[in-house]
Amino acid sequence: MSASTTVTSILEATRALVLELGYASLSTRKVAARARVPLSQIHYHFGSKEQLVLRMLDAENEQLLERQSALYAADEPLSQQWATACDYLEEDLNSGYVRILHEMLAAGLSSAVVGERVRSMIQGWSLVLTEAATRHAARGFSFAPLTIEQVVALTCAAFIGAELLILAGHEKELPLREALRAIGAVIEAGEHHTAQGADS
Question: Are 61 and 123 in contact (CB under 8 A)?
Fold first, then answer.
């Protein structure tokens, strides 16, 4: 087995076990058994359990960050981009990415190494949102009375909070998906108001 194949097998096994067992119950020994590689290979390629899961998370996050960057760079109304972001949430829930992200958020509360990496990831997402909001503001959309920084903070909180509550099974009492999509209707109303002001 080549080195690249070994690394891929280890990362795939790590992802599967995080979804099945959670980060707290994950061990390099369990990953080695699932990947069918010697335990020494995990320590050789990754060094530790923390570095292993962070490498796995980096690979996932890089692809999705590129997806979000492409979404918000497109010349579409903000309301349409919001609707697409809600569609992406469904995809990410189904793929397991959301579960993995929240396992890492939780792990970051007790691990400085994991916590710092997750903070860096969230900063990457917020930068994409800041650039998008700035672009739409320059085109005339008003976020008032909120600043762009506040809009970004609330957007991150809305999606991450909704994800956590969905994972925890609170959808029966809280219409989380519907609430997120309803924000798109509020944005669309703002777009119409902006367009009417431009025409008058």
Answer: no
